[in-house]
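Input chain follows. Return structure tokens only.
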Amino acid sequence: MISRRSPCHWLVPISCMLHFALPAAASDGEIDLDLYGRLLENHTRAVSEVVGTRVDYRSLEKSQDWERLVRQVRGATPSQFTRDEKLAFWINAYNILTINLVSDHYPIDGIKQIGSFFSPVWDIEVATIEGRTISLGAIEHEVLRKMNEPRIHGAIVCASISCPPLARTPFRPESLDANLSAAMRRWLASREKGIAIDRRNRVVRLSKVFDWFEDDFDSRGGVLAAIAPFLEPDDASWIRAEGKDASIRYFGYDWSLNDLP
């Protein structure tokens, strides 16, 4: 039943139908997460390889919807957001702007080719948001890491094989805790780039990310204590009981691009 206050009236059914058929657009200062979700669904693919998710950069380069999403990121006002809204926004922004940067330079073999020794890719300007020039490094180190949520390291993806698999759905503020935990579980499920436990020799091999950002996990009792809740029950039990006496080693990091051949 149409409310008396509705702009639609039974005498103008076509305009009424159009009004209700239009998809919900992003509010001013936000990004359209439904649009982002459709783009991820259409331009990425889950694979059984170690990379986990591959991205079709070539098709995104031609997408007007993708251009619109990037404009929304650059026009956002995260200073007005709640904490969870900020966290979700900056995770999504990092991944979107990383994909966009690669797409702008595609084809390349790896993201590091975009930069140089004196000007690494992480320092390249990717957006101006609320008047502030932003690089990928600034988003990671000056924004996200300062929010005391180490699970970001399973969520932000630097377009490389050894990165955590790119989530094929957006990170949403209303389900952020579940989204972050799911990203950690998927990453750590990989015995080739997440975690591998050699019980006989008491060796735990981890992603190099846990070496680079070890300090971020101190507030959660250290890396092993922090990741235990996201492991299979048997692995979690072993880590809690034996992990403190295990030797820690790290996988090599493959910076090859996570593109879709």
